[in-house]
Design goal:
Chain A is mainly alpha-helical. Chain A has one helix and no strands. The model of chain A has no long low-confidence stretch (mean pLDDT about 85). By secondary structure, chain D is mainly alpha-helical. The radius of gyration of chain D is 23 Å and the shape is globular. The chains are: A mainly alpha, B alpha/beta, C mainly alpha, D mainly alpha. Chains A and D meet through helix 1 of A and helix 1, helix 2, helix 3 and helix 6 of D.
Chain lengths: ~45, ~230, ~220, ~250
């Protein structure tokens, strides 16, 4: 039963790493694309 | 008949038509001339309702192509570079299939095959064994069996022998006599000029000149009006 | 719509009669798959006999992929897609006609493959009612979903690789259902197989409706 | 392609806005709270021991993966029915996020399975149908990202998106029957126990809040990104038309 902390850590790492990595990738792509689009076409600003 | 205002059509992201203005009267033979890549084929396909309009207005046979491209399709006959035939079927099978799809009956099929000289041995030959000229004849047979109101022909003379070209010209005259309208593109200017009532010159995806055969300008075109593009 | 469907189905079947691609290439492929299974799974230990229904349907599924590719290859050639759009045929009719033609070809293939299985794997066949009904429903499911995804992949450069990716996961319930129904029939307990026929009927209906409604937009290129 | 640097202009130079920044901070705080409650404060389960902690992230992820699929189907339906570009982008954005969540669910499910069942993979109905769901989503994304005309790929992807939820239901049903006909679902008995209570239940609740906030934040950003992709696609069209007309006028 002591070993099982390893599985817990792995699973949480997958969740935090997966979501965090995906979020960072989304932001990065957003930044690079934003530069190609004039500001008046970004409706959220 | 045909009425275009600032018609823009895209091939992928390329504006093959960049704002075409065009008005055509019924019962005429109209020659479309222009260099390769000028937009002749795309214009014919747009009029057939195959290519979507990215901007501008288009009315063909009374149908507004912005809202409805489907109901114009079975009323036009398009003869393109591709023949639209099934290689593994015979000439007779092909003509019968496309004619019946358009609602024509067996008599129309027979008449079309006879008119194009395909009622003999060729009738039961698979299309894959035909020569380029014979394929052309077969797709012309499919077209006349459908009795279209608007004929759109992309280089109809290409690949045909002398006799075949004469036959095409005769068919077009018969069609307009029967009330149809014909738009054809051709590089055979000598032959086509004799045939045509009106000559349209296009370049760079716009109509640059619209005149009768003698060269008299019918409609003045400015060829440079801006601001046709609306919301996509 | 039904008239258009019959016209298209007649055209596709006539084309098959003249070219015999399914008969000369797809059927031998299916039989070859059966023989390969026998090589892979030792026939003397009874594994083959146990797995027969599954192997049979896997062979049908892969052959169906080829038949579907063929069904859309004939429309891809030389402007036929444009011609179909100009023809004035109802897109729903085109869909149903293609489904019908593919189904007929698959059923012929299934019968011949069934004879092959009976001979090669010495399967004792019983439970005919369930076998026939489940085959028909499964075939309709495969043909309907396959035709819908076939036109979805048609006209694209990646169509050969895209079709299996889209179609096979979706057909998983049909593979499970038809295999279980066959197992039940061959084991002499057909009552266990009928719920699967029901599930596959729902599947087939879903895809027929989706195809009838969706085929028109999918046929457009722009 | 028109490249306009907007460092000096008033607009933001990312897909973030004030709303999403607040949302992002809330999501981070709640994820920290989830870690606190899920890993430290909540007790181990009587049967499963520490492994139960995996479920605090696994179960909410599964729920939001399904919500993402539902949004994809709804968005595709609205696009096909009303021609709504907005809904099309919602469908695309949520499909991609649902794919990420489904992959996470699958991996965490397998990690949970190893100590619980002794193996990473069993042909359990839920695990199998989740794997099929991942394949269906990958199919949708493959079509949506085809190198084809914009209208072609959105329309074709929307048909797939529309069929996504019905497919998932049929696949689940078939897999469920398939397993139960052959063996009793004894494995599932050690699943989420009926008697989770107190702090454990609260940890799961925090999990739903945290994962839900992350999902919403991702959805807004991914939607804006998809919208930008469309803008970049369309940019340059006016220029192309002008160039094409000039070519005609010159001849």
């Amino acid at each position: 039963m002591i070993d099982n902390w390893g599985f817990v850590a792995a699973a949480w790492a997958v969740v935090f790493g997966g979501l965090g990595g995906y979020a960072i990738r989304t932001i990065m792509r957003g930044r690079s694309l934003t530069r190609q689009v004039p500001p008046e076409k970004r409706r959220w600003s | 008949m045909v009425h275009l205002r600032g018609a823009v059509a895209l091939l992928g992201r390329f504006p093959a038509l960049a704002g075409v203005d065009l008005d055509l009267e019924p019962r005429r033979i109209v020659l479309l001339r222009g260099a390769n890549g000028a937009g002749k084929t795309t214009l014919l396909r747009t009029l057939a309702g195959l290519v979507a309009l990215a901007a501008g207005e288009a009315t063909v046979l009374g149908v507004d192509l912005r809202t409805d491209r489907r109901s114009v399709r079975h009323r036009v006959g398009l003869l393109g570079h591709a023949t639209g035939l099934y290689d593994d079927l015979t000439v007779g099978d092909n003509v019968r299939f496309w004619a019946r799809a358009a609602g024509a009956d067996a008599d129309d099929v027979e008449r079309a095959l006879t008119r194009l000289g395909l009622d003999g041995r060729l009738r039961s030959v698979a299309v894959s064994r035909l020569s380029a000229g014979q394929r052309r004849r077969t797709s012309l047979a499919c077209l006349i069996a459908r009795r279209p109101e608007l004929w759109l022909l992309d280089e109809p003379h290409a690949g045909l022998d002398q006799q075949g070209r004469d036959l095409v010209d005769a068919l077009l005259r018969e069609a307009t006599a029967a009330g149809a309208t014909v738009i054809l593109s051709s590089h055979e200017l000598d032959r086509s000029m004799q045939l045509a009532d009106e000559v349209i010159t296009i370049a760079g995806g716009i109509v640059t000149r619209d005149s009768d055969v003698a060269g008299v300008q019918v409609v003045p075109t400015d060829g440079g009006a801006e601001g046709h593009r609306g919301d996509r | 719509m039904l008239q258009d469907a019959l016209l298209i189905a007649g055209k596709d079947l006539r084309l098959e009669l003249r070219s015999r691609v399914a008969l000369n290439q797809v059927l031998p492929f299916a039989l070859l798959v059966l023989v390969l299974f026998a090589f892979a799974l030792d026939p003397d230990r009874g594994v083959l006999a146990q797995a027969t229904p599954g192997l049979y349907w896997i062979a049908v599924l892969f052959s169906a992929l080829l038949a579907l590719q063929r069904s859309f290859a004939i429309e891809a050639a030389d402007g036929n897609r444009d011609a179909l759009r100009l023809s004035g045929l109802d897109p729903a009719g085109i869909f149903l006609g293609k489904v019908l033609a593919v189904s007929v070809q698959l059923i012929v293939l299934e019968v011949l493959l069934g004879i092959g299985v009976a001979v090669l794997y010495t399967t004792h066949i019983e439970g005919w009612g369930l076998l026939v009904v489940s085959s028909v429903i499964a075939t309709a499911s495969i043909a309907a979903a396959g035709t819908l995804f076939g036109v979805l992949a048609a006209g694209l450069r990646v169509r050969e690789t895209l079709l299996p990716l889209l179609l096979l996961p979706v057909l998983a319930p049909v593979l499970i259902g038809s295999t279980r129904a066959f197992e039940a029939a061959l084991a002499g307990s057909p009552s266990e197989g009928w719920p699967w026929v029901g599930l596959m009927s729902i599947f087939a209906s879903l895809y027929v409706v989706a195809g009838v409604l969706g085929f028109g937009p999918l046929l457009e290129e722009s | 392609m028109t490249t306009q640097l907007s460092n000096t202009s008033s607009g933001p130079d990312s897909t973030a806005s004030r709303g999403t920044r607040i949302l992002g901070v809330l999501a981070l705080v709640s994820m920290a709270a989830l870690a606190l409650f899920g890993l430290v404060l909540s007790p181990p389960d009587a049967n499963q021991g520490e492994v139960v902690r995996i479920l605090y992230v696994h179960v909410p992820s599964a729920t939001f993966a399904y919500i993402g699929c539902l949004l994809t189907t709804v968005g595709s339906a609205m696009y096909l029915w009303r021609r709504s570009q907005w809904w099309e982008l919602v469908a695309y954005a949520s499909a991609e996020i649902a794919t990420v969540f489904t992959a996470i669910v699958l991996v965490t499910g397998m990690i949970w399975g190893r100590p619980t069942w002794g193996v990473y993979w069993v042909w359990d109905a839920r695990l199998t149908s989740t794997a099929m769901l991942l394949l269906l989503l990958l199919g949708y994304l493959a079509v949506r990202r085809l190198p084809a005309d914009h209208g072609v790929r959105t329309r074709r992807a929307a048909i797939l998106g529309l069929l996504l939820v019905p497919n998932v239901i049929i696949v689940r049903q078939s897999v469920q029957w398939w397993r139960t006909l052959h063996q009793k679902p004894t494995l599932l008995a050690n699943g989420v126990g009926a008697e989770i209570e107190g702090l454990m239940l609260f940890a799961l609740f925090v999990g739903f809040i945290a994962i839900g906030l992350v999902f919403t934040w991702l959805l807004i950003h991914r939607f804006r990104l998809a919208w930008l992709e469309d803008q970049v696609d369309e940019a340059g069209l006016d220029v192309a038309i002008a160039e094409r007309r000039a070519e005609g006028a010159a001849s």
